[in-house]
Design brief:
- By secondary structure, the chain is of the alpha+beta class.
- The chain has a single domain, classed as outer membrane lipoprotein receptor (LolB), chain A (Clam), CATH 2.50.20.
- Helix content is 19%, strand content 41%.
- It has 5 helices and 13 strands.
- It has helices at residues 3-10, 88-105, 157-163, 165-168, 170-176, and strands at residues 20-31, 40-47, 50-55, 63-67, 72-77, 82-85, 113-117, 122-124, 127-136, 139-146, 182-192, 195-208, 223-226.
- Strands 1, 2, 3, 4, 5, 6, 7, 8, 9, 10, 11, 12 and 13 form a 13-stranded mixed beta sheet that branches.
- Strand 2 and strand 3 form a beta hairpin.
Length: 233
């Protein structure tokens, strides 16, 4: 259950300059010491209150587009040449529920946290990083950060507030905000329902825009539909 929060944790760094940034990251989860999957690749385009997220290695595949500036969101399905306008309020409610649970597993938003610097740094995505360990509740996190990456938590403030991360993970995010740079690698360890869960998230590529026109719009020529409400609503 820690995996949904990792992307937000990766974003929790200091303020940055450029408003259009692209990055790729892989996330691996292992439970109870068992070997995990090969890892999940995520690709993120960020431009203020506009974001595009795609899974997998091939660009141009299924995508989620968030337009917080318009109060809209779209699911893009290239195979069917279909764009579905999503219920943003329902998405927000689900995100806040998931993050609230993640916050409880991490010890709660108000849990005291402590940070210590690790003795060894490392290179991640071509950047020299310093390592820090944050411990709060039953969670331990090792984060390797770089000052050279043009990303920061202030740039993502609207998204963090929209998703509920600022409240659900407040104690943890507050400590990460004090780190001198952007987390390029995050390794967390927590006990969930009696099992130890480990999550490793690594940024593998960072580049700065500008982005192509239409990246945050339903593609021209696609059928546009509206998400149907769940039964009983």
């Amino acid at each position: 259950m820690l995996a949904p929060a990792i992307l937000l944790i990766q974003l929790a760094a200091r303020p940055a300059g450029p408003t259009e940034v692209y990055f790729e990251q892989t996330t691996l989860v292992r439970t109870g010491g068992a070997a995990g999957s090969p890892g999940v690749l995520s690709r993120v385009w960020y431009a203020g209150r506009r974001m595009r997220l795609e899974p997998g290695e091939a660009r141009g595949g299924p995508a989620l587009v968030l337009r917080l500036d318009r109060g809209k969101a779209y699911r893009i399905d290239p195979e069917r040449r279909l764009s579905v306008e999503l219920d943003l309020a329902r998405m927000r409610a689900r995100a806040q529920m998931d993050l609230a649970l993640a916050g409880e597993l991490m010890g709660g938003a108000d849990a005291a946290a402590r940070t210590t610097e690790l003795s060894n740094g490392k290179m991640v995505a071509g950047y020299s990083c310093r390592g820090y360990r944050i411990a709060t509740g039953g969670v331990s996190m090792d984060l390797y950060v770089s000052k050279a990456v043009p990303l920061g938590v202030d740039a993502f403030a609207d998204f963090l507030e929209w998703s509920g991360a600022s409240r659900a993970l407040g104690g943890l995010l507050a400590e990460i905000r004090r780190l001198p740079g952007f987390p390029l690698q995050t390794r967390s360890r927590a006990e969930v329902m009696g099992e130890v869960q480990e999550t490793l998230s690594t940024v593998t590529k960072v580049s700065v825009g500008p982005f192509a026109d239409g990246l945050f719009e339903p593609p021209p020529g696609y059928r546009l539909e509206t998400e149907e409400p769940p039964e009983g609503r």
